[in-house]
Amino acid sequence: MKNLLLLVFLTTSCFAFAQKNEQKVLLTINDQPVYAEEFKRVFSKNFNLLQESQKDVSEYMNLFVDYKLKVLEAEEQGLDTLPSFMGEYNIYKKQLADKYMKDSEITENLLQEAYARKKQEINASHILINVARNASAKDTLKAYQKTIKARKEILSGKSFAEVAKNYSDDPSVKKNNGDLGWFTVFSMVYPFENAAYKTNVGEVSMPARSQFGYHIVKVNDKREAEGTVKVAHIMIENKEGNSDAKTQIFEIKEKLDSGNGFSEMARQYSDDKNTAVNGGVINTFSRGKLNSDAFEDVAFGLTEMDEVSEPFKTEYGWHIVKLLDKNIIKSFEDEKLDLSRRMKGDVRAQLIREDIIKNIKNIYTIKEDDAALAYFSKNVSNAILSSKWDKNDLKDIPQKNIIEIRGEGKTYEDFAKFITMAQRQMAEEDSKENLLNKWLGIFKENFMISYHKEYLAETNVEYAHVIEEYRNGLLLFELMEDNIWKAAKKDSVALQNYYKEHQQEFKKEKSFTLTMASTDTKKMAKQVRKWMKNDVSKETIEKDAKEMGHTVLFKSGDFQNKNDALPPKIKTTTGVSKVYENNGVFLVLDIENIEPEGIKTFEEARGEVVSKYQQQLEQRWIENIRAKNEVVINQEVLKSLEKEFE
């Protein structure tokens, strides 16, 4: 019901945007203006949802006025102050603000970039030169120069593997010579990913800095991504002395072909004990994740769900693979939600945050106390480096704001509490000063984002409209629930009286309790009729008909006389009927009971009675609300709207 109200009565913000001064007043309610622009927006947005009679401007005007009066009534009843209302409204407001704040050009660009990269896989090798995130300028430069030196050696003709062994601080280099295999978007840290995707095949990137240090990337190959697959497998290891591995896997395949279950066979025979316990199931993977091109080639080569491969050999042994699921890369719109989710735990989220902060600084005048860092550096001890600092150790804490926007802000005391919480999750900083500087920056940014989110409706017209739509729809639901719906359901005497006064409105058609048998030919239907008259069971009829090359379908229940599944004219006697033709099939009915047409009892009609009584209550209630409020419509503006929407 809430969603219905939101769809039918989408209103807009009443915030005092500057352009309102130029808008035409369509009507006033108790001398308060309602603008033509609001009506136009609502009417246009809901046009396709309206009944034909409501698509006339003057007719819709009645709905619009009733809606505005209902919202006013809800506010007068104090429904907008109820904890239940405020809780639901504030949750939605926060969620919507998050969305609108992140709906920026940089967010869209990052999503488009991630989608393009998801469609491409890269095979690359790399060299890592370690450098701490908080390293000194001297150490950072030293690491950079070492990275450049390694790159020059590669460009001069030395093999990448040789240079990687000599320079790379990645422990895996001893085994893989720096070769990372195939990967795609979100597989690597963002700076590394950028270097890989922006480097051509056969070339070596310039150094890229991540939290781990400097990377240089050689791109060996690129290919179109194939999405992901999920498979189960049975493996027989090529153990030394096990010359029968091939024979065993082909014997297992014969058993599978004979109908043995794949899961049971995997549990019984597979040498991959990690997956055997789960019926051979391997977690969903993309190309390059299993370190076996041969295995991946077969897995991605399967096209039909539950398709089972022929036995094949890899460096690990002999396998049989069954396809459980396959996910190709969908359209951008279909992938967008998942990409957004994955970006939250990525450096991209920080880029979006920086863009939001930049936008906030352009909107508001922000006052900051530059003395704050010096005060805390002086008065906070090195105990924070071991997460043991107590804010009660602070002396003479200033009673003022560290940061402030339009009179609202965060104090020195607030930052002290922030430090207390932050020290529980220590960052990798080598000094108290660096740590406090970082935390103060985060503290200020958090306040700016929180403030902007709270007052977003003042700077984002579209958000203001949507949040006001939701607010008023929620209010309207609470109003109708309290004043109409609950009242109607609880007043049993009024419902009984309404039923007595309007009994003729609650008619019931003739109905049948029956079992219906349907088949494709009249001849078969006649045979089914004979079986039914002889009380042959449905299961036997279905079985015998199938042996004769026909299908018989049964359906039992209560059917109204005008149900399309029934023939137009049915002989109104119980028992097995003659053969009827309807909707291109032949039917036989076994009628158990016939209910004649008549007036429904109160219990039978209760749902309809409640609905109609609610409509009556609402109409009277609206008349009372209209009577106690003064509504004045500007006929000249209304006529101009009628002309505009002709």
Mean pLDDT: 88
- How far do the termini sit from each other? 32 Å
Low-confidence stretches: 1-21
Q: Give the % helix.
A: 40-55%
Shape: flat
The total of beta strands comes to 20
Structural class by SSE content: alpha+beta
Give the biggest beta sheet: 4 strands, antiparallel
Q: Order of strands side by side in the largest beta sheet?
A: 4-3-6-5
Q: Give the count of helical stretches.
A: 24
Oligomerization:
single chain
β-strand amount: 15-25%
From the alpha carbons, calculate the radius of gyration and give it in angstroms.
37 Å
Kindly describe this structure.
With about 650 residues, the protein is an alpha+beta fold. Helix content is about 50%, strand content about 20%. The protein is built from 24 helices and 20 strands. The protein has a 4-stranded antiparallel sheet with strand order 4-3-6-5, with helices on both faces. A hairpin with a 2-residue loop joins β9 and β10. The relative contact order is 0.10. It is an enzyme of class 5 (isomerase).
